[in-house]
TrEMBL record:
GO cellular component, one term: cytosol
Keyword Manganese: no
Residue intervals of the RmlD-like substrate binding domain: 1-281
Entry's transmembrane regions: none
UniProtKB keywords: NADP, Oxidoreductase
Function description: Catalyzes the reduction of dTDP-6-deoxy-L-lyxo-4-hexulose to yield dTDP-L-rhamnose.
Pathway stated in the Swiss-Prot or TrEMBL entry: Carbohydrate biosynthesis; dTDP-L-rhamnose biosynthesis
Family, as annotated: Belongs to the dTDP-4-dehydrorhamnose reductase family.
Any single Pfam family the record assigns to this protein: RmlD_sub_bind
The organism of origin for this protein: Sebaldella termitidis (strain ATCC 33386 / NCTC 11300)
InterPro entries to which the protein is assigned, alphabetical: dTDP_dehydrorham_reduct, NAD(P)-bd_dom_sf, RmlD-like-bd
Gene Ontology molecular function: any one: dTDP-4-dehydrorhamnose reductase activity
Protein name, as recorded: dTDP-4-dehydrorhamnose reductase
Length: 286
């Protein structure tokens, strides 16, 4: 079995590499420098030179939610067009395809967890690009997995947990929004459950996020308590920050479909953050 990983230097790509190393699974890791998935000529050249992949896992994405509002073309290129082209390449070769979407496809109007059957209504360019990408991929190739996830954090890149820790080093007072609710997801858990899903052969749309739910404020509070910060943490509202992209208030994803298929529960977000902080300590980052 031969696996291609795109976007391998990000949080999820990094944890897939660690997982495959541990399992002794053969993989070929590429990032932008090795393979620009938005460039048709480079894609064609790469696949002419590198054939016989059994699985392609696309971890590349445009994730700057606010910048996307003015960088629409690049956002759609990376989040919609490129994954669809990879799905079409897989269709020609018979490889299994997996790519990722987001809780940002939902408008947050409901107050119970979103399932795969709920109708998306994205509020931002980022959310719309992801929704188009997931729809186009599923229409392009039947042997595709599209995984929606939320608030991803991992050791390999910047994320909200790391931002909070960095802010706490420089400030004695922090204001964090309490009107955005979803669930933080550890890229290590996301990689492991994605891999379990691939092995089922049950293609389609799935949600994978850690269990439970919290606001950004509750997430920050948990992290700051764990690292022993003695400053003052106060609530804020999303509108206070005048961000370019609209944020939904509630986008918790239900992972029940995934958990039922795999027969196991995805760990709670607090447990995930505990393990992440331990990983930071082991790497000398905390």
């Amino acid at each position: 079995m031969k696996i291609l990983l795109t976007g391998s230097n990000g949080q999820l790509g990094y944890d897939f590499q660690n997982l495959f190393d541990k399992l002794e699974v053969e993989y070929y890791a590429t990032d932008y420098n090795e393979l620009d998935i938005t460039n048709d000529n480079k894609l064609e050249k790469f696949f002419n030179e590198n054939k016989n992949f059994d699985i392609i896992i696309n971890c590349a994405a445009y994730n700057d939610v606010d910048k996307a509002e003015t960088d629409k073309e690049k956002c759609y290129l990376l989040n919609s067009e490129a994954p669809t082209k990879l799905a079409e390449i897989c269709k020609k070769t018979g490889a299994v395809f997996m790519t990722y979407s987001t809780d940002f496809v939902f408008d947050g109007e409901r107050k119970s967890p979103y399932t795969e059957k709920d109708t998306p209504n994205p509020l931002s360019v980022y959310g719309k690009s992801k929704y188009k990408g997931e729809s186009d991929v599923l229409n392009a190739y039947e042997k595709s997995y599209v995984i929606r996830t939320s608030w991803v954090f991992g050791i390999a890149n910047n994320n909200f947990n790391k931002q909070v820790i960095n802010w706490s080093k420089a400030k004695n007072k922090l204001n964090i929004v309490d009107d955005q609710v979803s669930v933080p997801t550890y890229s290590k858990d996301l990689a492991e459950f994605s891999w379990e899903l691939i092995k089922t052969g049950k293609f389609g749309l799935y949600h994978i996020s850690n269990s439970g739910e919290c606001s950004k404020f509750e997430q920050a509070k948990y992290v700051l308590e764990k690292i022993g910060w003695n400053g003052k943490l106060e609530t804020a509202k999303t509108k206070d920050f005048k961000l370019p992209a609209a944020r939904a208030e509630y986008t918790k994803l239900s992972s029940e479909k995934t958990e039922k298929l795999l027969g196991k529960k995805i760990p709670d977000w607090k447990d995930a953050i505990d393990r992440f902080l331990q990983e930071m300590k082991e790497k000398g980052e905390l």
